[in-house]
Amino acid sequence: MEAARKREPAHARVGGATHPGRRRKLNEDFLIMRPKLGLYVVADGVGGLNAGEVASALTAHSMCNFFESTEQDDWPEKYRALFDLTLKPPAQRLSAAIRKANDDVYRTAHTRTAHQRMNSTVVAAHWPPGSTEIHIGHVGDSRCYRLRDGEIEVLTRDHSLRAQALIDHPTITRQALAGLSAHAITRALGSKESVEIDMLTTEALAGDIFLLCSDGINRMLEDEVILEVLQLSDDPRAVAQLLIDFANDAGGRDNSTALVIRFENR
Q: What structural domains does the chain harbor?
């Protein structure tokens, strides 16, 4: 039965929600869901004035436009330099879309005074409809979680000072870790001309739930709480809104965005 579950393509239902939080007026998060393209994106912008809002929206729209331009196998020549041929074709496409978004954010940040130093995190999923695999790409500290068989797992690694400190110094004290900025990230779209992307391909099984979220969710909610909320409803949109509500009830110190992908039997 388990083997059959793994082989058979699943059906996906998706839903998302975003909120500025309780302490900020401006929402610099952005999400896009394009089921026909199999593209799902959460971006968290950084910058002065409205630049963070611009960066996250530009990231998501750039990726969406890229996917729309590459629906056929014969992709435009101008995009070929963006592809990582070590990846499977669907993962190549997602990785290339993130690189294109980096190009767009970087160019805008360096040509428009009002948008100087803007950048954005991104966590994105590409699930070609009917596929047995889902492809995840991320830059920054926005996360992808997977709930499978009652257990939750973080599939991404935060690109942040705190996460890097734990890698470099496994015995670092809590006090020393707390002294590092909770918001300082080590990678972002638009901060450099080129970008390093973490990519992951994993099975998409019936019963799996994937959560893409900005740090406004996971900074306010422990993984155990996220696990519980993901199981409160079968409706992905309702679950996404519940995660926002729980994050706000816990303090809502930042913008929060949740995008839920629920795989089911056909």
A: 2-264 (3.60.40.10)
